[in-house]
């Protein structure tokens, strides 16, 4: 994670968990799980497991004979994920501190590695994918999902201010435009791309229990002092969006990559 980027401390981790229970993010995970196509007995590593929502959903799919491991650099996220470690009809989820660029597991330990909205935080993406390849069995597969922040369409009554806020928020990631180069990095790490799709997020009409409404507080807290955005401006930006009511509009693309370690 970039040193000056978003810190997943206790407060931010709880905010992220709340946002990720919103129906549009639940649907995003369903799409990821379709791409994962897990089978009973599969051994899966979730890199940057976060609050453990995806791990808990995968556990019944691999069943008691499977294995679900999660690593994360954030103790706060792991503490939240631990509350989900016991899943009916699945293995107990194994959680530990670890980074994408130094995965604390032996070579060829997993059939599948998944990592959603994590590599965009990683400075050394190739180093991380080399690690993913090391821990995958031959012909194992990796499933990655990342955002390109150039794809955002967010209605505002002040487009210049929206532009400044989004420019400042790009600093929360090591690479806010990772998807456009991720195919090349996967190839360099020795993976063969087998599937690529866009996962659009769309919020029309202001609703507190959506991805973008949940992001407003996280963004408003992060941007002051960056790219010339002041606290007052961030507050005004957030208030403006909430006041749009039924005219509120937000759209953003995630990109889903499935690749094989052939
Ligand atoms: C936006 S959250 C996504 C969490 C989870 N993958 C999900 O989709 O619900 C990003 C997560 O990546 C973790 N993270 C950031 N850099 C990491 C790294 N180098 N290695 C492992 N995890 C990392 C953060 O601590 C955080 O939990």
Automatic annotation (TrEMBL):
Gene3D superfamilies: Vaccinia Virus protein VP39. One of its GO terms (molecular function) is S-adenosylmethionine-dependent methyltransferase activity. Keywords: Methyltransferase, Transferase. The keyword Transferase applies. InterPro entries: Methyltransf_11, SAM-dependent_MTases_sf. It holds the Pfam family Methyltransf_11. GO terms for biological process: methylation. The keyword Transferase applies. It comes from the Bacteria. This is Methyltransferase family protein. CDD domains: AdoMet_MTases (cd02440). It comes from Kribbella steppae. Residues 45-144 form the Methyltransferase type domain.
